[in-house]
């Protein structure tokens, strides 16, 4: 029986961040940031962003299309060539990034509340992620003075050296699941390396990226260096992917759209980074700390209501413990509270949209139809807001659609394995390769299995822990290239080798 979700904003009077976020929202419709000015779309069009917990309108936002993308590219190109950016010393770029980090910290409560209003993540997660965002700005703030080139050994008649230069104008396109951190994962390294950029947040979640744009301006980043152009994929996004004067594109989203972007970018051979889908294996061996592994396994698929590309959606359990661990996972997952992002007890907020909720619920039908056993959840919670119960299937085989396709909701498949070899084989038996985890007390096994898994990230005896220096990205159809750490510095620079005859 669906019960009503205690919804919307239960503690408004006591949450100062929420008050500030609401005041910012109510200050008026949001605009595009182009060339340092907040402007309407040339078409005059706007779109609405809603609160997925209440289905209510938050505010309207100017809707960029190809004409606005053209204007933003011109602004970014001018800024890239201008001495006010090209001539900035590495130390000054560091100071800008540190300044932005400080501003993010100073507005942490407001940004966290704004994120929770716009995308439905529990406030505790949004708060942690704002902290991460500031950390990422600081991490990349340390880089500008360390983007070294090389001097290469030659005979005495030549001088050969290599310099590392920015790519130029970068198009940054994001998904809606972790909007602020994903924006920062792209903007911070792009700035550190001296690029200029246009960022398109997802149409479902433009608000924290727009607020970040204000803070970036307050920090003193020159006009046109960071442009923010909310809009829809087939119009604004497609115009970015195909634009002849954009040098690089970095995209986070679905594998299908990623392939489209790769094709669209061939017109001028943009340098491309793609962070796409996943179906990550989480492997528990019998010698693991089972209590910790079970807790983490539930978090791994419920975090952000499963709307995380590296969610641990395939739980592999050694046969001898399969029934016991499945039961424990089901028990913990059933106890997870689904509800308002602003309730401190909430573990799962809403999904982002009715479309996403319908998609997730249709996978529940698919799982049952393919013969898996629904052990808990499987339904909507309440009838306002896009809340879905934590859902666990047992009796899943790895070939089933629920084990192969990215669902992007709180749906777990529990699968048995025989031995190490079988766990590795099944773990790798997917088109994706974003992340994986292995739980064992056997040190050799931990490293052997970690090396054998074909994924961009592997966790041992933990899940989803991150560090700004830890790169992420995909083997196989989970993407092209890597983000974070030193690898983002490579992704936002290109090298030039210079040879002189003496
Ligand atoms: P989802 O379907 O889960 O929303 P998408 O991959 O469609 O994920 O969206 C991720 C981002 O890609 C969003 O910012 C969206 O606007 C953008 N996008 C969608 N379609 C296109 C496209 N054809 N070209 C460029 N960007 C697109
Ligand atoms: Mg929204």
UniProtKB/TrEMBL annotation:
<dbReference type="InterPro" id="IPR016162">
    <property type="entry name" value="Ald_DH_N"/>
</dbReference>
<feature type="active site">
    <location>
        <position position="275"/>
    </location>
</feature>
<dbReference type="Pfam" id="PF00171">
    <property type="entry name" value="Aldedh"/>
</dbReference>
<dbReference type="InterPro" id="IPR015590">
    <property type="entry name" value="Aldehyde_DH_dom"/>
</dbReference>
<feature type="domain" description="Aldehyde dehydrogenase">
    <location>
        <begin position="38"/>
        <end position="498"/>
    </location>
</feature>
<dbReference type="InterPro" id="IPR029510">
    <property type="entry name" value="Ald_DH_CS_GLU"/>
</dbReference>
<dbReference type="InterPro" id="IPR016163">
    <property type="entry name" value="Ald_DH_C"/>
</dbReference>
<dbReference type="InterPro" id="IPR016161">
    <property type="entry name" value="Ald_DH/histidinol_DH"/>
</dbReference>
<keyword id="KW-0560">Oxidoreductase</keyword>
<comment type="similarity">
    <text>Belongs to the aldehyde dehydrogenase family.</text>
</comment>
<protein>
    <submittedName>
        <fullName>Aldehyde dehydrogenase family protein</fullName>
    </submittedName>
</protein>
């Amino acid at each position: 029986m669906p019960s009503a979700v205690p919804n919307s904003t239960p503690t408004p009077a006591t949450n100062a961040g929420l008050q500030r976020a609401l005041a910012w929202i109510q200050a008026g419709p949001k605009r595009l940031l182009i060339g340092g000015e907040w402007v309407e779309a040339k078409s005059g069009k706007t779109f609405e962003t809603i609160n997925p917990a209440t289905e209510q309108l938050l505010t309207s936002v100017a809707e960029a299309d190809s004409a606005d993308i053209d204007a933003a590219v011109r602004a970014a190109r001018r800024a890239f060539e201008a001495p006010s950016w090209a001539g900035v010393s590495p130390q000054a770029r560091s100071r800008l990034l540190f300044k932005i980090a400080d501003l993010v910290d100073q507005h942490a409560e407001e940004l966290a509340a704004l994120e929770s209003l716009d995308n439905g993540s529990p406030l505790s997660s949004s708060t942690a992620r704002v902290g991460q965002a500031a950390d990422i700005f600081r991490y990349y703030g340390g880089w500008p003075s360390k983007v070294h080139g090389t001097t290469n050994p030659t005979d005495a008649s030549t001088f050969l050296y290599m310099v590392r230069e920015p790519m130029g104008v970068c198009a940054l396109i994001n998904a809606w699941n972790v909007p602020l951190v994903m924006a920062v994962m792209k903007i911070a390294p792009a700035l550190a390396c001296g690029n200029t950029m246009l960022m398109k947040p997802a149409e479902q979640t433009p608000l924290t990226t727009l607020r970040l744009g204000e803070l970036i301006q307050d920090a003193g980043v020159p006009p046109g260096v960071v442009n923010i152009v909310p809009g829809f994929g087939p119009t604004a996004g497609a115009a970015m992917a195909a634009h002849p004067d954009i040098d690089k594109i970095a995209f986070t989203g679905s594998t299908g759209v990623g392939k489209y972007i790769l094709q669209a970018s061939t017109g001028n051979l943009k340098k491309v980074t793609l962070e796409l889908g996943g179906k990550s294996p989480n492997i528990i061996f019998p010698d693991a700390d089972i209590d910790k592994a079970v807790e983490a396994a539930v978090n791994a698929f419920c975090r952000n209501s499963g709307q995380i590309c590296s969610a641990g959606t395939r739980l592999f359990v050694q046969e001898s413990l399969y029934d016991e661990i499945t039961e424990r996972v089901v028990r913990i997952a059933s106890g997870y509270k689904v509800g308002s992002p602003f309730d401190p007890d909430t573990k799962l907020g809403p999904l982002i949209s009715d479309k996403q909720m319908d998609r997730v619920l249709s996978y529940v039908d698919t799982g049952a139809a393919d013969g898996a056993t629904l052990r808990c959840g499987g339904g909507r919670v309440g009838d306002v807001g896009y809340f879905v119960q934590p859902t666990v299937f047992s009796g899943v085989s790895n070939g089933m659609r629920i084990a192969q396709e990215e669902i992007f909701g709180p749906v777990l498949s529990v699968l048995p394995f025989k031995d190490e070899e079988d766990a590795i084989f099944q773990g790798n038996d997917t088109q994706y390769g974003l992340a994986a985890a292995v739980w064992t007390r056997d040190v050799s096994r931990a490293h052997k299995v970690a090396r054998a898994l074909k994924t961009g990230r592997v966790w041992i005896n933990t899940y989803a822990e991150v560090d700004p220096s830890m790169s992420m990205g995909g083997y196989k159809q989970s993407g092209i290239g890597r983000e974070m750490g030193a690898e983002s510095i490579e992704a936002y620079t290109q090298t030039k080798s210079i040879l002189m005859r003496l």
